[in-house]
Design goal:
It catalyses: D-fructose 6-phosphate + L-glutamine = D-glucosamine 6-phosphate + L-glutamate. With 347 residues, this protein is α/β, with parallel strands linked by helices. It is built from 15 helices and ten strands. Helix 2 packs antiparallel against helix 10, helix 11 crosses helix 15 and helix 12 packs parallel to helix 15. The radius of gyration is 19 Å and the shape is globular. 52% of the residues are buried. It binds 5-amino-5-deoxy-1-O-phosphono-D-mannitol.
Amino acid sequence: EKGGYDHFMLKEIHEEPDAVKKTIMEVSDIKKVVEKFPKFNRICFVACGTSYHASMIGKYLFEGIVGIPTDVILASEFEFSAGALDEKTLVIFISQSGETADTLKALRTANEKAETLAIVNVLGSTATREADHVLYTRAGPEIGVAATKTYVSQLTCIYLLAICMGQNEKLLEEIHKIPEYMKNALEKEDQIKDIAKKYKDAKDFFFIGRGFSYPTAMEGALKLKEITYIHGEGYAAGELKHGPLALIEDNVPVVAVVPPGESHDRTLGNVQEVKARGASVIALGSCNDAVLRSESNDIIEFEDEIRDLWSPLPYVVPLQLLSYYMSVERGIDPDKPKNLAKCVTVE
Ligand code: M6R
């Protein structure tokens, strides 16, 4: 049932291009839901863990493509921070399982005041029965505790929703290229395996990115903690100099997510700062980026010209593979990390 792979997690990472493709096929359902929407003046994403990182990207997309002010709230913090909800607010719940206790609690609170939409992978789960509107991600069942193919499917659904609400035909065409970009990212597997061997005994890891790459950095750090038990921190690259730079010393691995685009030069500047303090830089960037290559100890290069708006989908793939191979190198079962459950049904 693992389809010839050593673990479900690896199988599920390899299923990502297909999961994205299948979720793109849901676009007509998304359009139908959007047609029913009244005019909203605020969007609010609510989620936990990896689903929260997908939501962070949702904020950038909704503000950028649809032009609606958007908040992202951790489900466990919702009761403390979602004060001003009304019928002009759309609250979007992102949950793979549709059963996460914190998310369901927030959904019940939001249902009383605002319009709610649940984006869920598990058919018929509680969230799908309680939200006003439902959209499904088409990742298929995910067995590994670490969310991988469900994350990229959530992202795909969120991109499509923003594109449909913003009526952006050009982006709707572009999204069809993404599964191919992701397949190409999977081809970096052997190189990533070597990088994993090199860094498997590190004590601390930093992940940095700016704009669309900031949530990617956060997600890279979460995957690392979850399945390798190594301390990993995801930071907005611009925040480095406001504290964490003090922790950068010789050989501390810093994973830098640096796709081409608006934020590139500034993140490259941050790479130079950590390099000057002795960090080992593992960079993700374009194959045409000679400066980034020269600043990096290891670089995972993308041959496709992927602009930063689309980078979260293909760029997360090497980060998932890196954690997977480090987990295996450290003798851990990545499918069943200690202390964690696939579905968190307690608050
Ligand atoms: O089922 P959900 O998407 O609501 O789950 C939320 C988190 O528990 C989940 O994403 C968790 O962070 C993952 N195991 C991370 O890989």
